[in-house]
Amino acid sequence: MLQFRTARRRWLAAIGLTGVVALALSACAQSERTDDSGAGKVGGTMVFGAAGEPKNFDPIFNDDGESFRPIRQMFDTLITYKRGTADLAPGLAEKWTPSEDGKSWTFDLRKNVKFHDGTPFNAEAVCFNFDRWFNMKGAAAQSQMIYYGDVFEGFAKNEGDAAGEPVYKSCEAKDEHTAVLNLTKYKGAFPAAFGLTALSISSPDALKKYDADNVVQSGDSFTYPAYATEHPSGTGAFKLEKFDKANKTITLVRNEDYWGEKAKLDKLIFKIIPDENARKQELKAGTIDGYDFPSPADYNSLKSDGFNVTPRPAFNILYLGINGANNPALKDLRVRQAIAYAINRDQLVKTKLPLGAEVATQFMPKTVAGYADDVQQYPHDVAKAKDLLAQAGVSNLSLKFYVPTEVSRPYMPNPSEIAAVIADDLKAAGINAEIVSRPWNGGYKDDVQKLGKQDLHLLGWTGDYNDAGNFIGTFFGREKKEFGFADQGMFDAIAAADAVVDQGKHADAYKQVSRDIMAKYLPAIPVSHSPPAIVVSSKITGLVPSPLTDERFDTVSKG
Amino acid sequence: MLRFIVRRLLQAIPTLLILSLLVFIWLRSLPGGPSGALLGDKATPEKIEALNKVLGLDQPIFIQYFRFLGRILSGDFGSSLISGEPVVAEIGRALPATIELSLAALLFAVVLGIPLGYLAASNRGRFLDNSTVIGTLVGVAVPVFFLGILLKQLFAQDLALFPPSGRQDVTIDPTHVTNFAVLDGLLTQEWDAAADALWHLVLPAIALGTIPLAVIVRITRASVLDVLNEDFVRTANAKGLQATLIRRRHVLRNAMLPVSTTIGLQTGLLLGGAVLTERVFVWGGLGSLLAQGIERRDYPRLQALLLLAAVVYVLVNLLVDISYAIIDPRVRAS
Amino acid sequence: MTSLLKRKRARVDALAESAGTSLAADALRRMARSPVALLGAFLVLAFLVLAVIAPFIAPKDPYQRYPELLENLRPDFIPGAQPGFLLGGDELGRDFFSRLLVGAQQSLVVGVGATLIGLVLGMLIGGLAGAFGGWVDSWLMRFTDIMLSIPSLLLAISIAALASRGSQTTVIIAVAVTTVPIFARLLRGAMLAQRHSDHVLAATALGVRRRTVVFRHMLPNSLGPVIVQATLTLATAIIEAASLSFLGLGDPDPSRAEWGLMLGNSQRYIDVKPELAFYPAIAIIIVALGFTLLGESLREALDPKNRR
Fold this sequence. Notes:
- The structure holds 3 protein chains of 3 kinds.
- By secondary structure, chain A is α+β, with helices and mostly antiparallel strands.
- Chain A has helices spanning 2-34, 65-74, 123-134, 139-143, 146-152, 204-209, 226-229, 276-285, 299-304, 333-342, 345-352, 382-391, 415-428, 440-451, 468-476, 488-498, 503-521; strands at residues 45-50, 79-81, 88-90, 93-98, 104-109, 168-175, 178-183, 216-218, 221-223, 238-244, 249-254, 267-272, 290-292, 308-311, 316-322, 358-359, 398-405, 432-439, 456-462, 524-529, 533-536, 540-541, 557-558.
- Chain A is built from 17 helices and 23 strands.
- In chain A, helix 16 (488-498) runs antiparallel to helix 17.
- The N and C termini of chain A lie far apart (54 Å).
- The model of chain A is unreliable at 1-38 (pLDDT under 50).
- The mean pLDDT of chain B is 82.
- In chain B, helix 1 (2-29) packs antiparallel against helix 13, helix 6 (127-141) crosses helix 9 and helix 9 (191-228) crosses helix 11 (243-281).
- Chain C is an all-alpha fold.
- Chain C contains 12 helices and no strands.
- The longest helix of chain C is centred in the middle third of the chain and has 37 residues, at 96-132.
- The two termini of chain C are 36 Å apart.
- The relative contact order of chain C is 0.17.
């Protein structure tokens, strides 16, 4: 009995304590609220809700936004983007000059820049990074370098199947602050690709000290070296303090030796909250200061509660893929055009896609150099769709419409709903689209991209850099199972456009390709561009949303 | 008896092997796979194929299985493909979270359920009794996740009394010892951490505890009523013993036996409900680990979780056998 | 753990013991006096009637998107009530009221489908065990014990998740499998209880064939408890199906009108139009409550202990 009493007393104490703490916490919140010294305030901690865990912090081994968000705060690239745009701006390189043939790039580097570990940033460091990537050993490590593979295509010694002839040749440190990069060929991706977060510059000392290349594959899994997990060392405005896996928080602190204007925040915490609804509630409860990709359904409620929902300029595309391999009717251009006319894209965009979304007229957003204003349009016109089908001699067209589940992307916030609307529109034009749902990682990508089982499918893309090739070239640059569409003329035209070095002519070439694709080929139907938004509380100022989701938090202040 | 148990344990080994093989084959013959999830949206089918080769996923399934078995035997359960962290460490963190939540829910159900059931029984047929009985029936009919969403909407979002999700506030920087957040706070004397963790527990515990609460109330009520009808209570009444004394000494004590069995019975149910509650309150427990693992086809993580389940399953099987053996000696002989 | 299992088994077995001992008329008479039973019966009946007539009384086509509702539909705004649309639109611009009505039918399909499949499989296993006894019985019962020891929702989740493609059939099967061991145990217990009862002994003594004894005498007399359990199972089946939908493991087809699915799909609109989640949820709760009330009072009515 006595024991019971003491136990109870402890309980009461605990309950009392909770109350006191709650009071204290609310008091803190109150005092913070009254302290309103205006924008640009220095100091404080911002907590930002992230949607997923980063894979690791070594830029080169990553390719997803959740890993890149913290990486972007800790690292810089040679060329960066003008805040809020996809236009190039000086980063660690103040100037970059291509040679006549575009095979050699000279970078004039910024002076007085230090890595987080205190070592100096210079031309040797830049070349060390490029050499490290080029000479990376082990199939495990190589298979993780998605962006490097995209841009530079191959390694000194290719160990995986996917790699090809290397584009990279060599890097010379002409002097302390001039690095010259030699390539085996020119690609349209340059110079924009030098701004890819994956190609951020790391400290050579730290790379060596923490065994950065040592990605170990054991069984079905990878183990990353200490550099990637605990000791990333870049030149960015924030430094890693710790990644608390139990609490799912990544804590960054201000880099006092930053080369540019120092970060305003003392601390920047990324809290991982995988559930969209929970992120919203945390923001409303005041436990986080902002989060990424609010659901379009929540814009209204967030705004009316005084939060700032800022859409990024849309730099993505959602398309309805058409695969003609399984159904000969789809090989007829008129049938594909009928599908395009049948879909009420205006209504879809208005009713189901986020505020600011636009109907896509071609396979790239407006901001991309290569976008043509005068492509053939396909406005909603059921009569015309039926007419075209009749001309093609097709009736009772029945199609398998593959739709992903368990996925949400900025370009398709809710694929099932979008698919239901499209299928309904097609029905009105006499096309029966049978929806086949597959989980995103549970067979959808395989079925659609590798096996080509579908007649129609939903897929999209977010651009990596401002080049039409990053859109059109990715989709239609070669024959793919996804579209089951092989027209050598189209492939050649894209390859020719990509090889044009002069920026103006490069864009013009792509404009023509875009016109042809919309009028002559129509291998798929562009649906929409949806601006992904970012939401912050009214206390947060200075966050500039980027079309490439390349937000840097150094200008952010909480006041 | 001991020989019987040892024999059964040895017999359990092939069962485990077969189970693990089945799990392994089932998992790997499913469409899709971890490579696509690992490489993100930019990956082409060729790159996914190449990664499959690196991971050995292109090998025949039996070769994969024997390699897997070899690693397991050497104590290597692999690392999660999502987080890159050893699976054992992940489970070591998630298991306490789930247990903590389940315990809190059970505590809520018991502390509230027994008195309520007792009160209902002693007011049999009156308003309190009737409303309690109807309340329990409604309680069982409400889907756990819907209750969770309601609680969250009301008490976290609208009234802002409780945190909407997670186990601890981000601004608190706790030391992890056992990964039971409340316990860790008490052990390290970080009182604010303990209090905060407790605060985060309230809503999920209520959501998860409601069905057990309803069941416990009903069982308590029924078994108190049973005991009240027993002869010895009538005798005590007839003897003129004080009503409170009768209740405390005779009724409650005797009524507790079926109640305690029921409480035990609820643990399995709690585990099922925990998956839903964890989802609603973004509680980093086994349920979240499983859900995320399935979504991303994280083979190492799923294998470890399913193996854990298989071990539990075999142990349960063993316990069933042992209990049969205790009841019926003939089983032992066979 | 063992005692838990025993307890779980005991609950099922207790119900089984009531087999063949009760007279249906007697039980019904007692139920008619209980307000709880009447309420349960009323709710269940109302649900069944609604499920049958819903397609005929629905004011609009539940699958069509109406221009009136699409007009103002936005991702963060779903129109409310307006002339002709009693509860306004849903997230795709369809008539929410008509969908709610028709949802009764689809929910019934899921509930009854899962229960029936579970029942048939369970009866097969339980019937075999009960009819043969011996090692068949012992092995089958060990199998059901093990299945009983897995939390049913976890089992359903695993099946649905590993089936890899969501569909209504997957959901029905996942839920059905979890009910198999309960029905199996139940029927086996009920038949076992009768094996030594007078009418079976008499039939056997008269030289009636085993098959005839089982199908003519033992099975029909075991049905009482099975019906009770089926009623209770319907309630949990509907709730479990809704839980699977909530976890994203349900039928991904947004055009189907089923309450669990509607509840699952409307999560993201909970701030936009909470009714989209609340009304299906309330419908599920009421139906589950109805079946629970009915099942519990049936159980009580059949319980020999309560016969006065």
